[in-house]
Amino acid sequence: LDNEAIMNGPVLVRNLTTDTRIGLGRGIAQKIMVETVTGDER
């Protein structure tokens, strides 16, 4: 069980970090889209 935890630990951490980065990237993209749309309306 300890060996499995050691092997799965880093993978789970990497997946979480990549998921958060993707989430942040999508959030920034949505913010940019909203800013451009509001800028065009003005």
What would you say this structure looks like, in words?
With 42 residues, the protein is mainly α. It has one domain. The chain is built from one helix and no strands. The termini are far apart. The mean pLDDT is 76.
Q: What would you say about this model in short?
A:
By secondary structure, the protein is mostly helical.
Task: Note the topology.
Blueprint: H1 2-41
The tally of structural domains comes to: 1
Tell me about the biggest sheet? none
N- to C-terminal distance = 60 Å
Number of helices: 1
Work out the oligomeric state of the chains in this entry.
Answer: single chain
What is the succession of H and E elements?
H
Mean pLDDT: 76
Number of strands: 0
- Taken as a percent bin, the fraction of beta residues is under 5%
| Low-confidence runs | none
Any idea what the radius of gyration is? 18 Å
Helix fraction by DSSP (H/I, runs of at least 4): over 70%
Structural class: mainly alpha
What is the approximate shape?
rod-shaped
